[in-house]
Specification:
Helix content is 61%, strand content 12%. By secondary structure, the chain is an alpha/beta fold.
Length: 336
Amino acid sequence: MVVKREMESNETEPESLWHILQEMDSTWTTTVLLVPCVVVLTAGFFYLYGLIVSLLNKTSVRNKVVVVTDALSGLGKECSGVFHKGGARLILCGKNWEKLEELADDLANASDPTVTFPPKLVLLDFGDMESMPEAIEEILDCYGCLDVLMLNSSMKVKAPAQSLSLEMDKLLMDNNYFGPVTVTKGVLPSMISRRTGHLLLVNSIQGKLAVPFRSTYAASKHAVQAFFDCLRAEVEEYGIFVSTINHTFISSTAAVNTEAASSKSFWSLLYTKKPLGVSPDEAAAEIVRTLNNKKKEVVIAPSLPKVAVYARSFFPNFFFAVMAAGVKNSGAFEKM
């Protein structure tokens, strides 16, 4: 009996091993087949997600009245094209009537007239504050209301503070602060009465980070940033959204040259235009996402300027020391 049981146990052992090998083989086969399926399903999910987001971005302004205050700038033209193709009722503003007409013709020729609206044009010059009431009235008369106001006008000056005249200071404040604020106050009652609307300020990162030799420019950007930060809380109860976008620099040739960037000092990297530039199409895409997602604040900048913003808040003495060292570096000043 003992011998027989030993033989039976010896016979079942190879059989159990065979079952184990079969199970391992089936598991391996299942794994091999499952991994490609997971990869394909994941890729398909992200593709569908991107497609849905793209469709939402295109339809986020459809049939809405959108005002672009400086439609003749690089960013203004890019956003005008995106909004126009998206089916928005565009109101294009600018200082030059002939160039506005050219832009309107270009938009009309590049789109399907059966699904788009012909843009309306309004002369608007933030440097001429006396003409602002008439321009605001004309904007409101175009469609009787508006849904989105995009404020992207800006005037830049780089010079030591003592060399700027008071007239230049006032002109900068008119273009960068009083102009956008006046237009906003002019259209706000219409938005409040309809309990809807979106105010979008395209501001500079210098609304958060002041840099040397741009004293009045940075002051105007800080002022307009503070105004819209306060306004955001005031109009929330009326269903009006306020978004601010702080970028480093809008450039059509925005490409980062890492080798050149690595050879520059910390201070020059913060403010040199070329390595920190944002292309108009990148900025326009972010603006569309901001309108679609109702983001309150967006900073379009590489890591270094963002670190500088936090350093200004948490390590002010270190930040001021870096700024002072940069001013003393005449080579860096020449390259600004």
